[in-house]
Amino acid sequence: MSESYGKLFKDGLWENNVVFSQMLALCPTMAVTTSGTNGLGMGLATTAVLVVSNILVSMIRHTVSSQVRIPVFVVLIATLVTIVDMAMNAWLHELYKVLGLFIALIVVNCAILGRAEAFAVKNGFVASTIDGLAMGLGFTGALTFIGLIREFLGSGTLFAQASNLLGPSFAFLEMKLPGYGGALLMILPPGGFAILGFLLAGKRVMERRIDERAAQKAELAAA
Amino acid sequence: MKLEAIREKIGYQPLLLGAIALLASAALALASNATGGAIAAAEAKDLRDSLSEVLPQGLADNDFLTDTVDLKKGEKTITIYRARQGGVVKAALFKVAERGYAGDIQVLMAVDTDGKTLGVRVLKHAETPGLGDKIEVKKDKWIKDFDGKSLGDPTPEKWGVKKDSGVFDQFAGATITPRAVVKAVKGGLEFFAAHKAEITG
Q1: Which of A9, A60, A164, A177 is 20 to 30 A off residue A221, Cα-Cα?
Q2: Which residues constitute the domain of residue A49?
């Protein structure tokens, strides 16, 4: 089985990445990726919800009848998000002030219900946990990456205020480009769309190159 | 009967939904219980931090978070925190809001008993990043221009941004935002002047 678990990770992180391939959850992606720290925080919170929701859904998948499965999943996810919301408000208050508005929106993040429907309801506990983790980390990576690019172009910093999220020991991540005021457009919504568009195009090109190379190899081998 | 057979029965569906809803409520109650104290403490700390920022140090010897009076301003109720020294009210702290370029701008201000502002800070806003957000003290020291101003200084017609022949700077590319803040602070001072007796009494 270990090979297929590896495949789950590859799926979540690259081939079936929530943002770059499934193109789901674009609303939170656009909204929070104004800085790398925000993207990372939102990604981690979503990952937590996604893993627990996948675990719960896979555990009750035999009990839930297919007729009422959607309302059951929605209640589960809404409960989880509310708990994460309260926990962050209580124990990560500084970050909560930045992300507060978006945490509640994890409820309507279609990627979570999507994974429950497409994967957890058909698979066992371990596979669902790994799938949730891989998809969540893929989402976190995508958000952090977009956030870093927008932050760097838009305000000339990297991981600004990361110590609010990860603790003072991570302050070394915070970088500032001296003498660069930043191109405001990149922080605003148009910048988000532009960057996402470039990244999507880039990923397609890379995938095509990889496919072509594999095809060439196969031809050579056949000849 | 097997689970698969029961699962298809019509009576099973409401029972399942009810059970899930019950479990979810229980989990939420537990979580709310566990986090309630910490959330209240964090919010009180936020309020205390922002209040102490507009109030010069050493002006108050009371716990102004608990020394409040609620007054009506139009339809809204405004909570006024009173800073006392030796039992005498020295300053009033309160929040005012004014419509900016994008949504309300919430301003916290401290006014001394002569009607002079001690400090002004923007608590919450949704102005354009990079243009209107210079009203935040983290981004620009513009908001400190209000320190020491009162309704008589500058004169009422000068209470505006420079574009409206007032004394306060506007920002390049953003006039609506500073205009709204000036209006909010002026409104706050007028509100204080109108209710001075109730506040200091």
Answers
A1: A9
A2: 2-222
Strands (E), A76-188: 157-158, 175-176
Q: Report the distance separating Cα A176 and Cα B20, nearest Å.
A: 49
Option in A68, A79, A91 nearest B17 (CB): A68
Q: Which residue of A has its CA nearest to B38?
A: A90
Closest CA to A74 of A44, A112, A43: A112
A68/B7 touch (CB, cutoff 8 Å), yes or no:
no
Number of domains forming the structure of chain A: 1
> Which residue on chain B is closest to A65 by alpha carbon?
B7
The three-class DSSP label of residue A25 is coil
In this model, does residue A130 exceed pLDDT 90?
yes
Q: Are strands B104-112 and B117-124 parallel, antiparallel or unpaired?
A: antiparallel
Q: Are B93 and B110 in contact (CB under 8 A)?
A: yes
pLDDT recorded at residue A2 = 54
Cβ–Cβ below 8 Å for B16 and A91: no
Q: Which of chain A's residues have a Cβ under 8 Å away from the Cβ of B8?
A: 65
As for the ipTM of the complex, it is: 0.74
Is the pLDDT assigned to residue A153 strictly greater than 80? yes
Closest CA of chain A from B29, distance in Å: 10
Whether the pLDDT of residue A162 is over 80: the answer is no
How close does chain B come to A72, measured CA to CA in Å? 6
What gap in Å lies between CA A48 and CA A30, rounded to an integer? 20
- Tell me the pLDDT tens digit for each residue of B94-132: 999 999 888 899 999 999 988 899 999 998 888 877 778
Q: At B48, which amino acid appears? A: R
Q: List, in sequence order, the alpha helices (H) in B87-195.
A: 176-194
